[in-house]
Amino acid sequence: MQIADRLAPLQTNVFADMDRAKAQAIAAGKPIIDLSLGSSDLPTPPHVLAVIAEALHDPATHGYALFNSTKDFRIAAAQWYEQKFGLAVDPETEVLPLIGSQEGTAHLPLAVMNPGDVALLLDPGYPSHAGGVYLAGGDIYPMPIVAENDFLPVFAEIPQSVVEQATMMVLSYPHNPTTAIASLSFFQAAVAFCQQHGIVLVHDFPYVDLDFAGEPAPSVLQADPQKTVSIEFFTLSKSYNMGGFRVGYAIGNARIIKALRQVKATVDFNQYRGILRGAIAALTGPQDCVIHMVNTFAARRDAAVSALRAIGWPVPTPDATMYIWVKLPDHLPNDWANHSIDFCTELVAQTGVALSPGRGFGKSGEGYVRFALVHPPAVLTAAIQKMGELVTSCA
Q1: Are residues 269 and 360 in the same domain?
Q2: Residues 168-192: tens digit of each pLDDT
């Protein structure tokens, strides 16, 4: 029996690896404080749930949902962008509903890459961005992002031979895992670079509202208002706490949207129509829930930063996202400062505290760990104290 060679690069995954480590800790009787996954613990807004619940009793929602049946959702998505960013969006040709934005970022390489083409990806970056490229038979050029450059890629450092083979660049700001933000001028430079070299510019944008400065982070489409080379992915998982409902969408260049729609039509239809109705209620209804979500994560961020500094780990205060990207101190025992997977594995085994090792997000992530702020402040503080006690006991 044959298994496809294209699966070989997908054998390891940071989340799967940590899931096994958590399972072993649970089997050993350790209570788990899971800070390894960015799955919000906050509830979906009641007015959204009410719309979905009402739809359950409507037989018109029970059949397959093809593209034309998503029109109302596409209109709501276009209007949301127009109101937030002042961008004109055609809901018929420039919007595509998705079963979570990860579906879109994973399938897009099939639409814009041929085997042997190169994708320019952030390193560290979100693992599924690489997975889709591998499944499409593409090659990856990792663009290192480091603290000295504010975790932004330097386009001038990409070798010309790589640029000539590149057909896609993936950005994502506010950034997971580093929490970095990008300015509109940075996106303008990225658009100009991709226009010059005929590269599709992909922006994964789940943390648009999780900017603690109080203003939405810039959209790449503000830098490319004519949508010449760009496509942007949004999910309702973060802003509206709808991760389990798997609802998102893509907005951008009509040719790219059409190509992605062709791939999607081969693989699946759309979500249950009641979920799309709930998503419309989220996008068009009161936004108090978004403000509450941002304030909640800001308070958790402050508590976690304070607790980390209290155990002697100096960390900057993140400006965005639901994470803290922490550089492992040089003084850690067992050379853990250079082996984040070993540190996280030992931490969950000894204390039940689960983090994501930076190495799992790419080579440039080594030496860091990511905290997901998915518990109340008291739990975050207790977890960090446990971590400090482990380090002290092993010194």
Answers
A1: no
A2: 999 999 999 999 999 999 999 999 9
| Joined tokens for residue 199 | 């590269």
57: its two tokens: 């009793």
| Gap between the Cα atoms of 70 and 305, Å rounded | 42
Give Cα separations from 258 to 114, 214, 225, 250, 255 (angstroms).
17, 34, 18, 11, 5
Q: Residues 51, 198: one domain?
A: yes
Range of the domain at 50: 46-284
Residue-wise pLDDT for 85-115, tens only, equals: 999 999 999 999 999 999 999 999 999 999 9
User: In this structure, are residues 245 and 236 in contact, taking their beta carbons and an 8 Å threshold?
Assistant: yes
DSSP 295-317: HHHHHHHHHHHHHHHHTT---PP
The CA dihedral of 243, 244, 250, 251, to the nearest 10 degrees, is: -60
Q: Are 61 and 134 in the same domain?
A: yes
